[in-house]
Amino acid sequence: QVQVVESGGGLVQAGGSLRLSCTASGLTFTDYVMGWFRQAPGKEREGVSCISGYGATTYFTDSAKGRFTISRDNAKNTVYLQMNSLKPEDTAMYYCAADRRISAPGSLCRRSPALAEYWGQGTQVTVSS
């Protein structure tokens, strides 16, 4: 049984940093493109950053470029999202996603509506001004 579990969310002031973690089990981790998505109240879920199976290729939405970094530790079946210079508009529920049906991170992150083979339950990020 596949499980995807996020952690690391919280409340932070504008300009601060958070690191989200996502651990997946029950699957061959390197077969999967992994991604971070977010959904704010009243808005659609959107792709923030995605990474290929061995980490060679990454994708960032425009609002995340230069501020967020995505990485993965395949020995730990874990993907990370380091978020710096956080803004109030980054406030959202952040979800981790896994999909082996596509090979390009951008293909996962840019799907609209957001679709993935497996989803985590989400972790809340709140940025105060």
Strand content: over 45%
Overall mean confidence score, pLDDT: 97
**What's the end-to-end separation, in Å?**
41 Å
How many helical elements? Answer: 1
Structural class: mainly beta
Largest sheet: 7 strands, mixed
Q: Name the overall outline.
A: globular
Radius of gyration, CA atoms, in whole angstroms: 13 Å
The percent of residues in helical segments reads under 10%
Residue windows where pLDDT falls under 50 for at least 5 positions: none
Number of beta-strand segments: 11
Give, in order, the helices and strands.
EEEEEEEEEHEE
Report what the structure shows:
The protein is mainly beta and 129 residues long. Helices cover 4% and strands 47% of the residues. It has one helix at 105-109, and strands spanning 3-7, 10-13, 18-25, 33-39, 46-51, 58-60, 68-73, 78-83, 92-99, 118-119, 123-128. Strands 2, 4, 5, 6, 9, 10 and 11 form a seven-stranded mixed β-sheet that branches. Strands 1-3-8-7 form a four-stranded antiparallel β-sheet, with no helix packed on it. It is globular. The model has no long low-confidence stretch (mean pLDDT 97).
